[in-house]
Amino acid sequence: MKRYFIFALICGLFVAVSVVSGDQKEAQKSPSAFLPIKKFEFAPVLDGIQIQHTFAIQNKGTLPLDILKVRTD
Q1: In angstroms, what CA-CA distances link 32 with 19, 20, 40, 44, 66?
Q2: Structural domain boundaries, residue 3
Q3: Which residues sit opposite 58 in a β-bridge?
Q4: Residue 46 pLDDT
Q5: Number of domains in the chain
């Protein structure tokens, strides 16, 4: 009985390590957006004046990063 328990424990640990390492490999094969500055507050402006701000976005993943939607809050 004790041998069976030890065998089952070792098998369970092996499966857990395999799943975790598989998830890490899969996570490495994905895009990962990184924004050094996530928020920018514009100063008050007169109505009708156009203003702009450029946000730097880095892809720290291994696959191409597609930006499909941008929103303001």
Answers
A1: 21, 19, 21, 33, 10
A2: 1-33+53-73
A3: 34
A4: 94
A5: 1
Kindly state the tokens that stand for 61.
């993943």
Q: What is this structure's pTM?
A: 0.48
Q: In this structure, is residue 40 part of a structural domain? A: no
What is the residue-averaged pLDDT of the chain?
Answer: 80
Cα separation, 65 vs 57, in Å, equals 10
| Gap between the Cα atoms of 55 and 70, Å rounded | 12
In a domain, 70, yes or no: yes
The stretches of 29-51 forming alpha helices (DSSP H) are none
Per-residue pLDDT band for 44 (boundaries 50, 70, 90) equals very high
Cβ atoms of residues 41 and 53 within 8 Å: no
Report the alpha-carbon distance of residue 51 to residue 25 in Å, rounded: 42
Amino acid code (one letter) for 41: E
